[in-house]
Design a protein that fits this description.
With 295 residues, the chain is an alpha+beta fold. It contains four helices and eleven strands; from the N terminus they run αββββαβββββαββα. The strands form four sheets. The protein has a five-stranded mixed sheet. A hairpin with a 4-residue loop joins strand 3 and strand 4.
Length: 295
C-alpha cells in the first residue's frame, strides 16, 4: 500500500513538472524505494522549481543570474506586472537599498512574457505583421501563437530585472566593475550629442572605431558607417530631387493646359459640325417645301 502511494505521488509530480521532496525524514529517489524503506502513511509534498533571477545593471553593463529556492522570498514577486518597480530587499539583504524593475521573463516551457497581456498564464493571440515574436511568411498572413501574460506567477522559470537605483552595498559581478560599450553610436545627431558638438563640427573625426589584426596579419581599422550624415553630395542630391519635382510639376501644368485647350478645340469642332448639319437640314426642308408649293 505504501509503495502504491509512492507511485501515485510520483505520477502527480511528473504531470506537473515540478521537483518533489518528502516531508522531513525521506529523500525521493528516481527509482522506486524498497518496500521496507517506506513507512506507513508517508506523505510527499510539491515544491516549486528553483527560480532564476536575471539581474542587469545598465550603468555598468553587467548582469548576473541568481537562484532563489526560498518560496517565501519568491512570494514577494508574485502578482507583480512588467515595468513595475520593486524593493531589492525582497531578494535578500545584499540588495537592500536597490530598486529593481521587472523587464520580462520566461515560463517553464520557454514562452516569453508580453507587456499588455494582463493575465498570469498563457494565451493564444492572433498575430500579424508588426507584432513581437512573429514574422509573416506571406503577405497579409496571420497566425495564432502562444504568449505568456505580463503578471508574474509561480510558473515563471526566469525573471528579468533591471537595476533602476543602486544601493549602498557592492554586489560582486554587478556593481563592482564596469564593462565599457564596444560599439558607439552610428547616427550623426547621436554622435554630436555624445561629444557635445555643433552642426559645423565634422562628425567623422569623432566616430568610435577599433583597430585589430585580421587573418592575413594586417592591422585594420574598423569604423561604423555614419547614418544621416549631411555632406555636399547629400545636399546635391537633395537639390536634384527638388529640381526634378519642380520640373515635374511644371510639366504636368503644361500638359494639363495643352489637354484643356485640345478638349475645348474638339468641342468647338463638334459644335460647328452639328450647327452646319442642322442648317443643311433646314435648307433641304425649305427647298422641298418650296418645290411642293410650286407644283
Amino acid at each position: 500500500m505504501a509503495l502504491r502511494c509512492w507511485l501515485l505521488n510520483l505520477a502527480v509530480l511528473s504531470r506537473h513538472r515540478h521537483h518533489a521532496t518528502k516531508l522531513p525524514g525521506l529523500n525521493l529517489m528516481t527509482a522506486a524505494p524498497a518496500e521496507e524503506d517506506i513507512l506507513p502513511n508517508q506523505q510527499f509534498a510539491l515544491v516549486y522549481s528553483v527560480d532564476l533571477i536575471n539581474i542587469a545593471v545598465p550603468s555598468t553593463g553587467l548582469q548576473k543570474v541568481i537562484e532563489i529556492d526560498d518560496e517565501k522570498r519568491l512570494q514577494n514577486l508574485y502578482e507583480r506586472r512588467m515595468a513595475q518597480e520593486i524593493d531589492g530587499s525582497v531578494l535578500g539583504d545584499e540588495f537592500a537599498g536597490y530598486i529593481l524593475r521587472i523587464t520580462g521573463g520566461n515560463d517553464k516551457q520557454g514562452f516569453p512574457m508580453r507587456q499588455g497581456i494582463l493575465c498570469n498564464h498563457r494565451v493564444r493571440l492572433l498575430m500579424q505583421k508588426g507584432h513581437k515574436g512573429y514574422r509573416q511568411r506571406r503577405a497579409g498572413e496571420r497566425k495564432r501563437k502562444s504568449i505568456r501574460g505580463c503578471i508574474v506567477s509561480h510558473d515563471i522559470a526566469v525573471l528579468n530585472l533591471a537595476v533602476v537605483k543602486i544601493g549602498d552595498n557592492t554586489i560582486a559581478g554587478l556593481t563592482d566593475d564596469s564593462v565599457p560599450r564596444r560599439l558607439g553610436p552610428k547616427r550623426a545627431n547621436k554622435i554630436r550629442k555624445l561629444f557635445n558638438l555643433d552642426k559645423e563640427d565634422d562628425v567623422r573625426k569623432y566616430v568610435i572605431s577599433r583597430t585589430f589584426t585580421n587573418k592575413k596579419g594586417k592591422t585594420v581599422r574598423k569604423a561604423p558607417k555614419i547614418q544621416r550624415l549631411v555632406t555636399p553630395l547629400v545636399l546635391q542630391r537633395k537639390r536634384a530631387r527638388k529640381a526634378a519635382k519642380l520640373a515635374s510639376v511644371l510639366r504636368n501644368k503644361e500638359d494639363k493646359a495643352a489637354y484643356t485647350k485640345l478638349v475645348a478645340q474638339r468641342l468647338a469642332e463638334q459644335k460647328e459640325a452639328r450647327r452646319s448639319l442642322i442648317s443643311k437640314r433646314r435648307s433641304t426642308r425649305k427647298s422641298a417645301k418650296i418645290a411642293a408649293e410650286s407644283s
